[in-house]
Amino acid sequence: MHIFDNVQNHINSIVNPLLTQRRNQLFSILGFFFLTNAIVAEFIGAKIFSLEKTFGFKPAGISLLGDTFNLDMTAGVLLWPFVFILTDIINEYFGPKGVKRLSYIAVIMLVYSFIMVRISMSLEGADFWIFSGKNSGISNMKNAFDSVFGQGLMIILGSLVAFLIGQIVDAFIFAQIKKKSNNRFIWMRATGSTVVSQFIDSYVVLVVAFYLGGDYSLKWVLQVGTINYVYKLVMAVILLPLLYFLHGVIDRYLGKPDSTGEII
Description:
The protein has 264 residues and is mainly α. The protein has 9 helices and 4 strands. The chain has one domain (2-258). It has a two-stranded antiparallel ribbon. A two-stranded antiparallel ribbon has the order 2-3. Helix 6 (153-180) runs antiparallel to helix 7 (186-212). The model is unreliable at 1-15 and 257-264 (pLDDT under 50).
C-alpha cells in the first residue's frame, strides 16, 4: 500500500503541473476572446441596423405595444451571443470566480478604451486628413470620426452597467442550474442563464442610454430591446452545438475528471 501511495504521489507530481499549465493556458485564451468580443461589441453597438434591408427583405411591419416597427437592432448583437457562450464555457471550467474576474477586467478595459477614444477625439486633425474624404462624400473627417466613436456618456454608462449585471447574473444562474442538475444537461444551464441575463442586457443599456439619457420614447426602447432579446435567444439555441463542440474539445484537452474545478 505504501509503495502504491508513493507511485500515485509521483504520478500526481508530474500530471498536476501539466494540468495547471493547461488550465492557465485555457483561461488565457478564453479571456482574450472574451475581452476582444466585449470591447468590439461595445463600440459597434452605437450603430442601429435594419435586418430587413441588410438581407434585402421588405420591412417587417410588426405590431407591438400599439405601434408598428421593423427589425432594427444594435450592431453589438452580432457579437454578444459569442460573449455569452464564452461566459458559459468559462463558468463551466472555472466557476463564477472566473466569470467575475474577467467581467471586472472587461469593465476596466472598456473604461480605459472609452477614455483613450475621448482623448483622441480632442486632438486637432491635420488639414489634409480633415478634407481627405471629399471624394467619398465625407466633407469633414474629424466630424465623421467623432460621430462614429463619440458615444454619449449615458450610452457608455448603460453599456457598462448592463454588461456587468448581465455577466454576474449569468454566472450565478449557470452555477445554480449546474449544481441542481448534478453537472448534467449543459443545454439547460446554458440556455437558462442566457434567458435571464440576456433579458437584463437587452433592456438595461437601452433604458439608460436612450430613454434616460436621450430623447427616445420608452415604446421605442421596448421595441428595439424586444427584437434584440428575441435575436439573442434564437442565437443561443442555434449556437448550442458550438457550445457542445467546445465542451468536448476542452474535455479532451484537460482530461474530463479534472476539468470542472474552480479557477486557481
